[in-house]
Specification:
The complex is a heterodimer of chains A (about 100) and B (about 700).
Chain A: E1 3-5, H1 16-20, E2 26-28, E3 33-35, H2 45-49, E4 55-57, H3 67-78, H4 92-98
Antiparallel strand pairs in A: 1-4, 2-3
Chain B: E1 12-17, E2 27-33, E3 36-42, H1 60-64, E4 74-76, E5 85-87, H2 90-108, E6 113-117, H3 133-139, E7 143-145, H4 151-161, E8 177-181, H5 185-188, H6 193-201, E9 205-209, E10 222-224, H7 231-244, H8 250-256, E11 257-258, H9 260-268, H10 272-279, H11 283-295, E12 299-303, H12 313-320, H13 323-327, E13 336-338, H14 349-353, E14 364-366, H15 370-375, E15 384-388, H16 392-395, H17 399-406, E16 412-417, E17 429-432, E18 441-443, E19 450-454, H18 467-477, H19 489-497, H20 509-515, E20 517-519, E21 540-541, H21 545-549, H22 567-572, E22 575-578, H23 594-600, E23 604-607, H24 609-614, E24 622-626, E25 631-638, E26 646-648, E27 685-690
Parallel strand pairs in B: 6-15, 7-14, 8-9, 8-12, 9-10, 11-21, 12-13, 15-16, 16-17, 22-26, 23-25
Antiparallel strand pairs in B: 1-2, 2-3, 4-5, 4-17, 18-19, 19-20, 22-27, 24-25, 24-27
The chains are: A alpha+beta (about 100), B alpha/beta (about 700).
Chain lengths: ~100, ~700
């Protein structure tokens, strides 16, 4: 898997990643987005686009976040593709502050 | 750009352009902190780049700062090929370079010098278009014909269409049927995918024709697996279905083409059943796509260089490019075909390269016949080889002969590059040149209609010099005085822009500086062939007298790939081997970058399960891939993505960095395609055998 979405996306869902993704490889639920590794082309534009640093290159994924590889894989199978940026979740800015990234 | 390099407001951002050999010619932003480049990203407001780069170039800054980057001039101190060098000053390097060239010119004439530029940069100033061009003209050097890429297809396209003003890739958003023919844009042209996706969201059907179920084919509505090199037969078969249905656009044909009745006869000779035997595609599938093509306007065809790397490559492009002329697609927004958009830019190449500096005509040397050029030529022999942005010891056909040629002790070789490549190991002098964020260049694209200016974002690493500066210093050391040889980079850019061509009217250096890029003067999307069809008749020439005069079939045809279709070769070497681009390398660039090399893994050869079983090859096991020309070591990958009888291996690996010391090009023949002296990388037969228990040494030739 080239890139992995992790827990920082939860309750934020800024979807800047979606705006910049050339291949629409993100899938979405009510809480966050997930990446379909088979569709991702590893351009990594989403890494720097994400305001809450939720997305990692798999090579740089910390050990305590490695379980997110399987979560992304599972979720991408069933959730719908998101092609266009949507509004962040209502508490996104609060969550971003809590993460120390405001 | 990595997450930790996320830009903040206290950093400065410099716009530039990706210089690499890719249709997308991205606009990029370099994030600079305290004079050091710390990050890179795609320019978000560029209409084609739209904020993303690719798996390779997202890591460009790391590559620029790599510990093995060349930072100082070097001279060879060991035998050729050993890679033993010592550091010298620029003064000594330039003095040696000039002395040797002057002596060779005196003894053997200017034609003994071969300025060998590759696709390391596509720039006008620092890259393949014109690097050193004025000086080579003044010295009377041999002309260098860069045949490694698009030449066969460009010549083929030109016979019928007059030029390469193909369909604007942005127009793909308006197509109802999209055919990607022998290309894998999700690896090699990813920015066109947004336009294709837009069309699909509106209901367009996407078909990919490829011998491999590539990354792109896997995401299409339909993948048609074809025997390599038989694309022209398929094109004629599809047109056969169109014509049999009476679906050709008779009004368009009458008004815009010549030779239709003769071409129609040719098309009628290719019914789906015959084409099925040639292409390996079931007749029903050919008929189904033909019927879809007949009833779908607009249809957009995307094709690139992969399908023309064989004995009939020029004719393949010529034939495919006739399809929209029969269906009338050229008259519809979103209809047509594209091989390259290179012709839209009307720069003043003559003023830039100054052919008038040349005292007399000189011979032309063929880039992809380097082995022959170094070993067989004697009129005069090549005595000086100046390699710029190329690694022919990795990238050229007949690797064994190329290396033998490079090893000639009487050959003076200079390599101007960023890294100590396989080829640099054979050089007398290795000169470190700047990378893109460190110099000025102007870039046209072959996959969109924007013109880009790239200016330095940071100071050069070490003692690296722009290639333009190396040639200015060389001209001075040679005692030459013509002011044209000392033009500044800015003057060179202005000379190209000052053409009077409508495509660049009003486009100045100053305006380019404002945002780094400008659209050429065409609407979005552009009308294909905006100046008509620049053939002798001014029409699409199904029947081409120029082709006939050149000894070719006057009509579009199926010219078979030579080795693929040779029964005697097939008896000894049953597998057709093709070598498309890796997702993690660009030609041979980045194949020395540790993280990308790790992602790519060892050289793999993909085999159909039946072909593997017949040879006792297990998935993941080491194999030797070979023919009479040479061999390389690979790891077998058993897969259902390739046809039975076809093997696939990625190009780009550096021989000196892989097990066995050779790559796929050790097996490829040094031979021309039917047009434009194009190379024949995909017209190759091999066999594959297991290596047990450990790899045995592979001969270099």
């Amino acid at each position: 898997m080239p890139v992995v979405v992790t827990d920082n996306c939860r309750r934020c869902r800024f979807t800047e990643c979606v705006a910049v993704c050339p291949v629409a490889c993100f899938h979405v639920d009510d809480d966050m987005v997930f990446v379909d590794a088979a569709a991702c082309i590893d351009c990594r534009a989403c890494l720097s686009a994400c305001p809450v640093l939720a997305i990692y290159d798999e090579d740089d994924l910390p050990d305590d976040k490695r379980h997110w590889i399987a979560i992304n894989e599972d979720k991408a199978k069933t959730l719908p593709v998101i092609r266009f940026k949507i509004d962040p979740l209502p508490d996104a800015e609060i969550r971003r502050r809590d993460l120390g990234l405001a | 750009m990595t997450r930790s390099e996320r830009p903040t407001h206290d950093r400065s951002i410099a716009r530039g352009t990706c210089p690499l050999d890719c249709p997308d010619t991205c606009s990029w932003e370099i994030i600079v902190e305290n004079g050091v480049a710390v990050g890179i990203r795609g320019t978000a407001d560029h209409p084609f780049t739209r904020g993303n780069l690719c798996a390779k170039v997202d890591r460009y800054i790391e590559h620029m700062h790599a510990p093995d980057r060349l930072l100082h001039p070097l001279k060879r101190v060991g035998p050729k090929g050993s890679g033993a060098f010592e550091r010298i000053s620029w003064d000594e390097a330039i003095a040696t370079f000039a002395d040797r060239l002057a002596t060779i010119k005196e003894d053997h004439g200017g034609e003994a010098i071969w300025p060998y530029a590759g696709c390391g940069s596509m720039g006008f100033l620092q890259g393949i278009v014109g690097v050193g061009g004025r000086l080579w003209n003044a010295l009377g050097a041999s002309h260098h014909e860069p045949t490694i890429c698009h030449h066969a297809g460009s010549h083929g396209t030109a016979y019928t269409m007059g030029s390469r003003h193909g369909l604007d890739p942005e127009a793909f958003a308006h197509a109802r049927l999209i055919v990607i023919w022998g290309a894998n844009p999700l690896t090699t042209h990813n920015h066109v995918w947004r336009f294709i996706s837009q069309a699909r969201e509106a209901g367009a059907h996407l078909v990919v024709i490829d011998p491999v179920r590539s990354r792109t084919a896997a995401r299409a509505d339909e993948h048609i697996s074809i025997v390599p090199g038989t694309d022209a037969a398929l094109a004629l078969g599809l047109l056969n279905v169109v014509v049999t249905m009476g679906a050709e656009d008779q009004a368009f044909i009458a008004e815009n083409t010549i030779g239709w009745s003769a071409y129609r006869e040719r098309i009628l000779a290719f019914p789906p059943e015959r084409v099925a035997q040639v292409t390996g595609i079931p007749a029903a599938q050919i008929r189904s796509l033909g019927e879809r093509l007949a009833r779908t306007r607009p249809t957009a065809i995307l094709t690139r260089m992969g399908i023309q790397r064989h004995a009939g490559g020029g004719m393949a492009l010529r034939t495919i490019m006739t399809i929209p002329g029969v269906t009338g697609d050229w008259r519809h927004l979103g209809g047509g075909a594209v091989y390259s958009t290179g012709a839209y830019f009307g720069g003043n190449i003559k003023a830039f390269l100054r052919p008038d500096l040349r005292a007399k005509p000189a011979r032309t040397l063929i880039m992809t016949r380097l082995g022959e050029g170094l070993l067989d030529l004697d009129d005069p022999p090549v005595k000086a080889l100046v390699v710029l942005g190329a690694n022919p010891a990795a990238s050229n056909p007949d690797q064994g002969r190329v290396r033998k040629g490079l090893a000639r002790d009487d050959l003076f070789t200079v390599v101007i590059d960023h890294f100590k490549t396989d080829t640099a190991d054979f050089a007398d002098l290795v000169l470190p040149t700047t990378m893109q964020p460190e110099h000025t260049d102007l870039h046209n694209a072959y996959g969109h209609l924007y013109l880009h200016l790239n200016e330095p974002a940071v100071r050069p690493q070490g003692e690296c010099l722009p290639s333009t500066e190396i040639f200015r210093r060389l001209a001075a050391a040679l005692g030459l005085t013509d002011p044209a040889l000392f033009a500044t980079d800015e003057e060179l850019v202005r000379s190209i822009l000052d053409s009077g061509h409508p495509s660049v009217e009003g486009i100045t250096l100053e305006r380019l500086r404002e945002q780094g890029w400008l659209r050429l003067n065409y609407p979005r999307p552009a009308k294909a062939y905006p100046f008509g069809f620049p053939t002798p008749s001014g029409k699409i020439e199904f029947l081409s007298e120029r082709a006939a005069a050149d000894g070719l079939d006057p009509l579009p045809a199926y010219t078979p790939p030579r080795e693929v279709t040779s029964e005697s070769t097939a008896a000894r070497f049953p597998l057709v081997l093709i070598s498309p681009a890796s997702h993690f390398f660009l030609n041979s660039m980045f194949a020395n970058k540790p993280d990308l090399l790790r992602k790519a893994g060892p050289i793999k050869v993909s085999l159909h399960a039946d072909d593997a079983a017949a040879r006792g090859i297990a998935n993941g096991s080491p194999v030797r891939v070979f023919n009479d020309r040479g061999a390389f070591v690979a790891q077998a990958e058993i897969t259902d993505t390739v046809r039975r009888g076809v093997a696939v291996t990625p190009k780009g690996y550096w021989p000196k960095l892989v097990s066995g010391g050779t790559n796929v090009n050790a097996t490829v023949e040094e031979r021309d395609s039917d047009m434009g002296h194009g190379a024949v990388f995909h017209d190759n037969r091999v066999d594959v055998l297991p290596i047990n228990p450990l790899p045995s040494p592979v001969a270099a030739e």
